[in-house]
Amino acid sequence: MALSVDQEQLHFVLIPQKGQGHLIPMIDMAKLIAQRGVIVTIVTIPLEAAKFKSFVDRAIGCRGLQIRLLQLEVATAKPNGHEKEAATVLSQLKDFFKTASSLQEPFEQSFRKLQPAPSCIIADIVFDWTSETAIKFGIPRIVFDGFGCCSRLCYHNILQSKLHGSIMSDSEPFVIPGLPDKIEVTKGKVPMHFLSHNSDEQLKDAIHRINKADETAYGVMINSFQELEPKYAQMYKKAKNNKVWCIGPVSLCNQETIDKAERGNKASIDKNQCLQWLDSKEPGSVVYACFGSCWNLTSSDMMEIGLGLESSGYPFVWVIGGGDISEIDKLLTENRFEERNKGRGLVIKGWAPQVLILSHKAIGGFLTHCGWNSTLEGVCAGVPLLTWPMGAEQFLNENLIVQVLKIGVKVGEAEVHADGTKLTEEEAMTEGVGKKKQEVEKAVKKVMDGGEEGEERRKRARELGETAKKAMEEGGSSHFNMTLFIQDMMHYKAGRE
Ligand code: UDP
Fold first, then answer.
1. Adjacent-strand bridge partners of 387
2. Which 3 state secondary structure label does DSSP give 45?
3. Which residue, judged by its Cα, is nearest atom 17 of ligand 1?
4. Which end of the chain, N or C, is less surrounded by CB atoms within 10 Å?
């Protein structure tokens, strides 16, 4: 669909936050917007800019896109040596919000000088102060939080129903109201910053401001595609006055090998070495295991995952990253793990070129923590998922993957009594089974082995992968939604002039 109004002067300002799960999709989004002829300014700090500068330089240099960087000088909380970006620890979280707030003043000063005058702000959800900025400068503010429609609708409905206030225990199951499917969770499985049952006043205040700014935003940008979660997309749109744009999966904007390989942190494996290893494997035979940018599994749990992959008998790529790897490295050496699995298992210690790996035909399954980006990247690869959620909205994503889309298997799901009946979660815990080696092995076999059920699952995953690609092509739903979004911004601008 052609844009009818002259869009030459459109200028969108993007403000991503530092967590890789938010930063990476927003940088992709910048590229997708700039590909439509819109000028894009990415607001960042020098420490963060280093992480995506080469990507932006390539977008500008090779493709002539108009992407600019606005680097603000602010005092940042000292990063810990382990790059734990999830900020799950209270003090980290508070530091994080403090740094996020400190950007307002320098940003507003620079904002006045931006040329042409910005037409909208697309800000990560943590930058609640952008609501004031947008009002000051008379432009719309769009929020982005890296969630899909299903998890967004879940939180929206939980907050609207005020249900969370009446549920005291973290382990009491409850059904999320107003959803197209019966999704049962516990309070412990939905992120604390949305339920604000945390007792820390400073944190509560930050969460309250974020929720308010989220509610009052002009619209929401979603990294998803309508065909993936149609009912959730439709219901969420309705709840947000239609101002919801599903424009993903944004990772698909990376078509060149170099763009797939250089996403986020610097990969700790050479891309050619990685491709060579994958090339040596049969199509669909390799399990890829990675737990996102900020996993917090213990070293012994991590080791169990490796042992489970090993005993499954399938070739695997196992990423050990996101935290301090020295302890697990020691366990690997003691176990002679790499020596034993030479040729069959590729262990990546540090950052993996995930999209490059997942888009290789050798990959047949993805063991994931169900972060939304990883979920979508797995969907794009057209492979079934093995789910091991740990926090944030990951349990909700797991529900979507396993229960709604039926393209995944829960790790631990395969655990049964001697008579074949399934263990309850509680039994699994008391019997000390936990999600360990045998469970990983069983889940891998369930996903990778033949059989009607596995075949059906693989077929559904493959078809969704195709649909994802179509959504991003010209004429596809996400491509069209991007057009609608740009038109909306254009009309808003025209209405002001
Ligand atoms: N990622 C990567 N290499 C790694 C770990 C993560 O490229 O070794 C990327 C992954 O492709 C995804 C993002 O980091 O785009 C992680 O986002 P996700 O939402 O899956 O999880 P989070 O890290 O936010 O929990």
1. 368, 410
2. coil
3. 21
4. C
214 has a pLDDT exceeding 50 = yes
Closest by CA to 399, choosing from 114, 217, 78, 150, is 150
pLDDT higher than 70, residue 381: yes
Whether 281 contacts 309, CB under 8 Å: no
Ligand 1 atom closest to Cα of residue 374: 20
Q: Which residue has the higher pLDDT, 335 or 78?
A: 335
- Reduced to 3 states (helix: H, G, I; strand: E, B; else coil), residue 394 is helix
Largest CA distance in the chain: 73
pTM of the model: 0.91
Is residue 322 within 8 Å of 294, Cβ to Cβ? yes
- What atom in ligand 1 is closest to the CA of residue 263? 7
Nearest to 310 by CA among 290, 283, 337, 275: 337
293 CA from centroid of ligand 1 (Å):
5
Which candidate, 293, 294, 349, places its Cα nearest to that of 317?
A: 349
The CA distance from 30 to 260, in Å, is 16
Compute the distance between CA of residue 427 and CA of residue 415 in angstroms, rounded to an integer: 10
169: tokens are 């225990």
Ligand 1 pocket: which of 26, 356, 374 to mutate (most atoms within 8 A of CB): 374
Nearest atom within ligand 1 for CA of residue 295 = 25
Site residues for ligand 1, CB cut-off 6 Å = 19-21, 24, 263-264, 290, 292-294, 319, 321, 351-352, 354-355, 371-374, 377
Q: Which of 55, 260, 269, 293 to mutate to test the pocket of ligand 1 (most atoms within 8 A of CB)?
A: 293
Strands, sheet with 244-246, edge to edge from the N-terminal-most edge strand:
67-71, 39-44, 11-15, 120-124, 141-144, 219-222, 244-246
